[in-house]
Every structure is written in structure tokens, then in C-alpha cells.
Task: inverse folding
């Protein structure tokens, strides 16, 4: 009993349920981001009828729970590495954590982390650390248990202090290369996301995105993509690094060699631009509309949908609509993608034209839509069966601008009759 109590006291605090203070077996996350033992939090909600988070006392509206698989694996790895195993069982079926290779690599990881905290020559140590982490999930979990996250984040934010120090800059690049291999998801215990969400961390990543090597920039984009579903305050980066950051991201989005980096960049841009109108103004100022329109013609289906989504977001603000209609290929490029990519892409194209026709229905714009075939394709949409929001947007465009388009001989006579535009 005394030994059992001693072992209980040695468990890390993060492995204990905040309600029972016992080691968690089925950890789950609630809407406030706190992790509890499943049976304890369910009892709190459904037996005691509580509507607060036990740890923070925040009022809760969403009572959904999500399994915290990462923390569960961390607990299992910790147990395997700290619990003594009988010689008979270890000889017959040794656990992965007690294998000679795992023990050797874990010891090497401990040594490398200590070196990173004391030695000025960090790049080689970070590269070795990256090689160990790439061996598999077990090494990644060991890294997190050993406090590796905190060590690497210290290196990342150091460039805010020693921005002109080449070695500090290179260490930051290599640290991001290591961190991109760690699991980041909504199922995490929140520690990784919390550290990345700090203003200093995001500022450092924005600097690397602007001035780092291509490999480091790809690593940074990979991390931002993984974090895109989290509740980041993107304004921290936009306010300090906005235009320069967007220019760097647009450069990566245009990269024809690294298609993965290009696709990831577009996903991150969608998330950032969807977060605020201010971010869209910064992106437009950085030349986003011009870059995206020129990328559109030769883009693949997946990339095309993302580009159209970004163009649509930019067209939701006045500067974006002006930038779109002023580009000589804007209307033509979007017209070509209508019906030629996917149903999703076609819906986005209609939204773009609806925005342009609502706010900038100039004679030039309406004429280009007719010349480039957009009007002809929109007519086809009207003949599609069944009501839809896309069809309603299309009909609204014809009701507002049909009189201008009806002057062209190719405009369908039956549509003139339907819209009440018969020639007298």
C-alpha cells in the first residue's frame, strides 16, 4: 500500500483528472479545453446537472466531449517507462518502451535537449533530434514528456531578441523543422496549441515566413496548416507582419515545385482571410488578387477550388472587387472555371459574379461577362431543375442586368419573355 501511494504521487499533474485527482484512464476534452476522466465529467454534467467547467467554473453551453487520444498515449508511454516489469514477462514479450533501441534513443534525446539549453551550437543537435522524432509516435511522445516543446519554443522566440544573430535564426529554422513533425489536433491536451498561440511564437513564425530558407518556410506553413482549425487570434500576426507575411505566403502559393506547400498555403490563407476584413485589405495590398487570378487558369481541381474561395473572400470587400474588375483576366478566368471544375467551384464562381454585379455593374463588367461566356453559362443554370441558392443568385443577376445583356443577339428570346424584356 505504501509503495502504491508513492507511485501515485509520482504521476505528472497533467495526467490527473481535475475532479478526482486520480490518474486518467479515458481522458476526454470538454468545450473549455480542459481534460477530465470520462466517467467523472459525465457524472458532473448528467448526474449532478452542473452547467459549469469544474476546473475553471466557466458557464458551458456545449456539453460535447472529445476523446483525448494524445494524452491517453502519453499516459501509457509514461506508465510503460516507469513501471517495473517481471523478468519473465519482459523476456517473453518486451514492450516497445523497454527495447534497447528505444532506451538508447530516449537517453540520446535527453542529452540533446540538455545540449540545446547550454551550447551555442544548436543546429546539429536539432537535426539529430529531428531524426529521432521521425522514428515514430513513441519518440514523439517521449519528446513531449521530456519537456522538449518548451525547449524548442525558447529557441523559436529567441530571434525576437537576437534577430541579427545568424546562429539564432538558423536554430529557429531547425526548431520549426522539428516541430512540424509533432501531432497537432483538436484531440491534443492543448499544450502544443497553447504554446503556438502565444504572440511571440506567431511573430517568430511570421519572420521565418518572410526571411527564412525555403525549407523553413515550408515547415512553418505546415505548422500553420495544422493549427488552422484552432482558435488563433490571427490579428496578432496581421497587425505586426501583415503585408510582408502575405507576400511570402503568396510566393509559396505560386510555387510549382512544392505542390504540397502551395496547397497548404492556400488553406491557411482561407482561414486567415475568413477571420477578419482587415486581413483581406492587407492581402489585397500585398497583391493577392493579381497573383490568384494568374494562378487560376492552370490550377488543378483542388487548388482551383481553394483559389476561387480566396477570390470570393477578397471580393466581399470593396478593395477586392475593384482589384478583380481592374485585372484584365479576372472575369475571363472565373468564367472559364464555371462548369469546368466541380459543383463546388461553380457555386463559388456564381457567388463571385453575384458580388461583382451587385456592387460594380458597369457597362464594361457586364460586357465582359457576355463576351467571356459567363452569361451563357448562367443561362444554363436557370434551366437546371429544383430550387437552390445558386439558382436564386443567378436569377437575381438576370433580373437586375438582363436589360443590358438582352441587347446582344445571342441572348435567349424565351428568357427575354420570362424577364419581361420583349422587344417592342
Result:
Amino acid at each position: 500500500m505504501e509503495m502504491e501511494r508513492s507511485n501515485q504521487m509520482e504521476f505528472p499533474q497533467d495526467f490527473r483528472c481535475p475532479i478526482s485527482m486520480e490518474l486518467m484512464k479515458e481522458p476526454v476534452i470538454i468545450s473549455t479545453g480542459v481534460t477530465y476522466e470520462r466517467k467523472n465529467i459525465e457524472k458532473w454534467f448528467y448526474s449532478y446537472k452542473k452547467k459549469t467547467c469544474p476546473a475553471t467554473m466557466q458557464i458551458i453551453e456545449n456539453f460535447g466531449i472529445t476523446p483525448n487520444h494524445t494524452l491517453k498515449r502519453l499516459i501509457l508511454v509514461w506508465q510503460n517507462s516507469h513501471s517495473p516489469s517481471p523478468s519473465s514477462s519482459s523476456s517473453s514479450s518486451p514492450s516497445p518502451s523497454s527495447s534497447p533501441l528505444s532506451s538508447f534513443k530516449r537517453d540520446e534525446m535527453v542529452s540533446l535537449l540538455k545540449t540545446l539549453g547550454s551550447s551555442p551550437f544548436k543546429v546539429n543537435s536539432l537535426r539529430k533530434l529531428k531524426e529521432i522524432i521521425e522514428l515514430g509516435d513513441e519518440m514523439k511522445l517521449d519528446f513531449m514528456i521530456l519537456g522538449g516543446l518548451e525547449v524548442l519554443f525558447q529557441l523559436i522566440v529567441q530571434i525576437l531578441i537576437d534577430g541579427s544573430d545568424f546562429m539564432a535564426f538558423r536554430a529557429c529554422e531547425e526548431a520549426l523543422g522539428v516541430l512540424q513533425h509533432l501531432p497537432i489536433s483538436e484531440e491534443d491536451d492543448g499544450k502544443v496549441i497553447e504554446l503556438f498561440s502565444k504572440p511571440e511564437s506567431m511573430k517568430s513564425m511570421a519572420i521565418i515566413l518572410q526571411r527564412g530558407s525555403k525549407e523553413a518556410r515550408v515547415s512553418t506553413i505546415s505548422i500553420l496548416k495544422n493549427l488552422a482549425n484552432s482558435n488563433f487570434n490571427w490579428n496578432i500576426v496581421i497587425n505586426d507582419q501583415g503585408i510582408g507575411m502575405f507576400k511570402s505566403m503568396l510566393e509559396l502559393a505560386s510555387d510549382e515545385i512544392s505542390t504540397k506547400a502551395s496547397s497548404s498555403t492556400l488553406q491557411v490563407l482561407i482561414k486567415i482571410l475568413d477571420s477578419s476584413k482587415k486581413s483581406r485589405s492587407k492581402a489585397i495590398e500585398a497583391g493577392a488578387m493579381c497573383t490568384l487570378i494568374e494562378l487560376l487558369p492552370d490550377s488543378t481541381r483542388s487548388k482551383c477550388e481553394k483559389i476561387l474561395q480566396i477570390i470570393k473572400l477578397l471580393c466581399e470587400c470593396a478593395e477586392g472587387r475593384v482589384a478583380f474588375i481592374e485585372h484584365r483576366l479576372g472575369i475571363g478566368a472565373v468564367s472559364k472555371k464555371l462548369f469546368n471544375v466541380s459543383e463546388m467551384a461553380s457555386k463559388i464562381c456564381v457567388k463571385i459574379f453575384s458580388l461583382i454585379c451587385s456592387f460594380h455593374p458597369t457597362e464594361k463588367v457586364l460586357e465582359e461577362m457576355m463576351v467571356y461566356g459567363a452569361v451563357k453559362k448562367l443561362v444554363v443554370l436557370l434551366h437546371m431543375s429544383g430550387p437552390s441558392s445558386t439558382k436564386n443568385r443567378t436569377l437575381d443577376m438576370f433580373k437586375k442586368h438582363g436589360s443590358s445583356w438582352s441587347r446582344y443577339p445571342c441572348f435567349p428570346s424565351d428568357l427575354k419573355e420570362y424577364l419581361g424584356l420583349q422587344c417592342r
Summary: The first strand starts at residue 27 and ends at 29. The CA atoms of residues 176 and 219 lie 6 Å apart. The beta strands are 27-29, 35-37, 66-67.
